[in-house]
Queue: 4 jobs
Job 1
Amino acid sequence: FLGRLSLPERTFITDALRTETVGGMLLLGAAVVALIWANAWPQAYQSVLDYTVGPSAPLHLNLSLATWAKDGLLAIFFFVAGIELKREFVAGELRTPSAALLPVVAAVCGVALPAILFALVNSGSGGHPSGWAIPTATDIAFALGVLAVVGSHLPSPLRAFLLTLAVVDDLIAILIIAIFYSHGIKFWALGLAFVGLALFWFLHRRGVHGWYLFVPLAFVTWALMHESGIHATVAGVAMGLMLRCHREGDEQHSPGEHIEHLVRPLSAGLAVPLFALFSAGVAVSGPKLREVFTQAAPLGIVIGLLVGKSVGVFGGAWLTARFTRAELNPRLKWADMVAVSVLAGIGFTVSLLISELAFPDDPALAARA
């Protein structure tokens, strides 16, 4: 479709998709459409989710559209997140320990406290402790989208703090998925996936160019990771971390920056909204809403995101500034940190993913989550 547009129109659309405001609005719009579709025409929505496409041999890729969105499209999102994380390590807030300490500790506390609160709420006989990781994730697109909307009223360093916080949060979420929510590992497929990743790294470091080489290699590596039992999104973030994000010689942009510039519109404009469309459609009614506040699993998520994230992020940052040499940016006030701590409680993309992984045999519970 974009290929049929004139160059100025295509440039305008792709530039718009690189802004957090537009990406966040598309994500929100897709979630609203999913909710309306799932409640007004539930059978049609479910039939679309269950429609299978793809080859069954040799890597069992005859998957439903919902699975393609969860395992395939989110790999693109995590690929961009991996590049962001690498860039933060080499050129951003994470490159110096003193600057990184505050947001890193805030992110860790913002993961630990929601998990603890969820576990406490679900410690009784009717609890579901396997969902402990659902409220630990911050949605980068939503949080930065909200921050961009009100950006004129907040100091600019707040965005850098939130981005660093969310990137570290994503790294922790990826490790949680890989360690706790992977199952039945097939070591032959995992070994071949590592070979694919090594080849990806080798070609990139040798300065080899050409999407026609890297895209098929990335797809095969993703398919092998999917077959191995490790969640396929791990392949996306691994390839993102392998890209060189520092400039050499007379380069105006590093390869990582260039590739992120190209892929981000695909992630923000297609991959994440489609994932939301296929994942956020749950039946909403009075009785079902009451279950959110009366059953342990959904209540633990509410408390974890609303209370755990806010208190964990703010408390971690404050304690770090109070008892170490780390300091808050002079342009920021602690009232600003309260605001960013609440924004960190927006859990959507990764939280939806972990909800499905945590309760694979109970779709009704996953829907409430």
Job 2
Amino acid sequence: MNTTLYDVSVWVIPLVIAITFHEAAHGFVAHHFGDNTAWDQGRVSFNPLRHIDPFGTLIMPAILLLSHSPFLFGYAKPVPVNFRALNNPRLDMVCVALAGPATNIALALIAAAAFHLLTYVPENAAQWVADNLKNALVINVILAIFNMMPIPPLDGGRVAVGLLPRVLAAPLARLEPYGMLILIGILILLPLAGSQFGLNLDVISAILRTTTGYVIQCILVVTGNS
């Protein structure tokens, strides 16, 4: 197996699993609280084929990996949720939004705990399994932390909309159509602009990296890997 194919296999597999379980969790919790939209469309499933977006889940991560990008990012087809169909729209929306990041943290814990089982893996496959588990830990924590940013349509934004007083929740909810543009602005364009003037404006990314590192360390401690 050449290095490139090996690298793709140990990054794309855990990424597909992380994104698939994240989206399926949203659909499952929405169904539990009364919205059958995702259920009726067959999206309450842990079958990756029901959630994979050809570009966002496969092509874009592969391009980033092959171009030696400093970060790996991807996304699945968003699970459709009709928040008005939920039994208690505001509170249930919070639960539906939290389901995705919570599932990623659970997967990260499972991956870290599985490090203890590597001694039972055949020697010729141990390194490949270890790299998959390591990347699964990192990817799931990054997805959980990134998605909890309080900007709609990210999960953290929907949690904020559900918990904040309506006077604050309403204007935040109206940002949802522009959420991805805001993210591109603060994560990519703002740092690029700052670098032109010798300023480090990459504050959000620094906070995300620090938080991610802290959560990974906590998971390693909890699972006895520290």
Job 3
Amino acid sequence: MRAWSTPDVPTLPETGPPVRIHDTATGTLVETSPEGPARLYVCGITPYDATHIGHAATYVGFDLLNRAWRVAGHEVSYVQNVTDVDDPLLERALKVNLDWVALAERETELFRQDMEALRVLPPAHYVGAVESIPLVIALIQRLEEAGSIYRVDDDLYFSVTSDPRFGEISRMERDEMLLVFAERGGDPDREGKRDPLDCVVWRGERPDEPAWDSPFGPGRPGWHIECTAIAQEYLGEAFDVQGGGSDLVFPHHEMSAGEGQVASGSDFALAYAHAGMVGYDGEKMSKSRGNLVFVSALRNSDIDPMAIRLVLLSHHYRDDWEWTDNGLFDAVDTLERWRSALALGAGAPAGPVVAAVVAALADDLDAPTAVAVVERWVDATLGTSGLADTSDKTAASVVRDLLDASLGLAL
């Protein structure tokens, strides 16, 4: 599956510091120390609907990690999946009387356009669930050899107790796991399972559902094992960061890691980073609540995509926050001021700005601090609180490159 086009990104003259990121599994900041290319896996969309602001916040958040690593002098191997066959997609296709393949292709293409407009750097490997089926089959066979797979009717399940580290990522108590598992696609009450938390890795063929041949019988992959297989194929064992929204901590990332660790005997990822949830009208954005703000709808309303991105950057990637129209309008006004300052050519000294922005982003992707640094430079350059400072004759060029390279804002 193809990704989207790669924007031209300027190279900063100085190498940034090592990047630290919050690891959900330990609850601490950890310094990433990539050996060779930095390796990042971020869970992708299930393409049954358009990209909403909550999605965009996650992908812009991890785009900051991609950029911070590059500024620190690392090549980056970034992998993302597309769950282009799954229950929500099939249910949506049935409701709207549309072929599920056509629906997936349409919404995936819209996602590409949204990511390109927001200047999110594309993954090196953008892999659909359907095309990953041979990888999934091979992984299930390895898990079978390890004794961690069993059958319930036509479905195959992964035994979570086969991974002695199961639960270390989410750090949830079992009662909480059972509750969340049921809420997020699990089937804890199914008869015949060895443990209520065991997850399906191969779903046997159902009437009127797509299925593929396999040594286990016709069917399709379970949700979690898709990401496990793709990540290990393209990033190998113990890759640097597994990323996604905080709603994926459990069960998705816990299950994916367990499967990977049993299959390889090694760490799945070295750190697990999670983006906060975005709300609207007092509730988390979700299809069921009908409170979604779509990136494409904003773009089609002539909203500058850089203003959308600036709103996202104004919140720390790990925070839960509320989208407001006023916040977007404020971002439009802010960008107008920033462009006015950049248009002067000269400005306040740029060196301290570069150092402070790069340092903020290397410290757990602290975009709000970086944005505040730029805002102070704009104020000084325009003389908002007194005389304008235009002592640095190349300031605008340097700051413009910094905004693009580090924050993904093309101004």
Job 4
Amino acid sequence: MIKRLSTAALLASSVLVAACQPQATETASSQADCVPSTGGALNLYTARHYASDEAIYAAFTCATGIAVHKIEFRAPELLARLQAEGASSPADVVVIQDAGAMGEAANEGFLVPFEDATIDARVPEQWRDPQGRWFGIARRARIVAYDTQRVRPEEVDDYADLASPRFRGKVCVQTSDAVYNLTLMSALIDRWGSQRALEWARGIVANMARQPQGSDSDQIRAVAAGQCEVAITNHYYFLRMAESDDAADRAVTEHVALAFPQINGQGSHFNLSGAGLAAHAPNRENAIRFLEFLTGPQAQGIFATETNEFPTTTEATMPEDVAAYSHHAADPLPLPAYAEHRAEAQRIFEQAGWR
């Protein structure tokens, strides 16, 4: 469930929406009492599907007069469209909600390196592609929700713990093709090697309380309902449920808590939403202004406040619920590794029987 936009965000997000095709929508952002829309436009290809992002586009148009024309796809379809369009693609900026898919876009040549001192000053090196092709705009931790009445936090302080006999028949997970599971497995392959990662996946399969199913929110609900003791989830689903207008969702979090397990004692696994300059951008200057805007305090604040994601910049303001978890260290996985092991991650899941 997506958190309701705040009053400020709603005021900022006066957006026209028109259908493009079954799995895509195109929008143009505008707002009264702002800079006149004389700054031209940019074409945004995005795989993010949050209403809060519309507030960011509107705020950018308001500040610059540059209209944002958005085409939204799921990541596989977005990459396929870029491939089909080739050098004639009108895309100026590419945004994808998963670091693995963002890395694929870069490796396929859909993004072009560019230097920008503003972005480099705001975004730590860890969250920037070493070749300058893309950078993180928001972070999400792939962690563990656990039953506080049956699990001690120290029992889930390492991802390896989830595959131990302690949790036989007590783990809830999504299917293996869930994008965040693929990216987590890619990280484990990089850190542990393929054989240990396979053993871990087999351990998870042996420990499953039920067949993989449902969303991350469903995994949290299953823990609360006593169907399992631990579940793999992204952090923000728990935060959204905790502050939901739905009393049933809030009740789910009363006896469920978040643990931030470590990989080799170096930090928890964080995935990224990323952004980059399209290889054939027809509106390059406008695109770079937009990319800079995504790292600024207004956009970073919207990511944190409206979608409960962690910012990637060091000076962003966060609401209390997000800030309460912001001290957890992130595993310093090199950004190229998110995409490098993606195909192998899927093969390991298949070998392990994680459907």
